[in-house]
Amino acid sequence: MIFGGFIEDELVGCYILDTNNQGSAEIKNIAVEAKHQNQGIGKSLLTHAIQTTKSLYKQQLIIATADTSTMQLGLYQKTGFKIIEVQKDYFPKHYKNPIFENGMQCVDRIVLRMEL
Ligand SMILES: CC(C)(COP(=O)(O)OP(=O)(O)OC[C@H]1O[C@@H](n2cnc3c(N)ncnc32)[C@H](O)[C@@H]1OP(=O)(O)O)[C@@H](O)C(=O)NCCC(=O)NCCS
Q: Whole-structure pTM over 0.85, yes or no?
C-alpha cells in the first residue's frame, strides 16, 4: 500500500506499507520532500502507518534503517519503535558500491519494531 502526505494539492511525502505478513506490517520506504522536512510531516506519516496497521488488526509494525541514519533512528525511537535486530554488514553485502551518510559508511541494518 502506498500513501501520500499532501499540503493542499502538493505531494510532500509518502510511505510504502508492506502488509503481506499476517501478524505484522513493515514500512518499506518513508520520505518527505527536502524543503518540507523538520515540520512534523514524517511523524504524521508514521502516525498514519501505525493507525493503518492497527486498522488491519496486525500486532506489530516494523521499520529498518542504516546504522548511520542517526536522525531517523532518533525519530523512530521517539515514536515508540524499539531496536530488535542489528543485521551486521548488511549494506556492504547487498550493495555493490559503498553508501555514505552523515560522513560515515552505512554498514549494519538496524531493524526496529513497535508492538501495537
Ligand atoms: C526521515 C524523514 C522521513 C523524516 O521526516 P520529517 O518530516 O523531516 O520528520 P519530522 O519533522 O516529523 O520529525 C523530525 C524529528 O527529528 C528531529 N530531528 C531533525 N533533525 C535532526 C537531527 N539532525 N538530529 C536529531 N534529531 C533531528 C526533529 O527534532 C523531530 O523530532 P521532534 O518532533 O521530537 O522535535 C525525512 O527526513 C526524509 O525524508 N529523509 C530522507 C529519506 C529517508 O532518510 N527516509 C528514511 C529511510 S529509513
A: yes
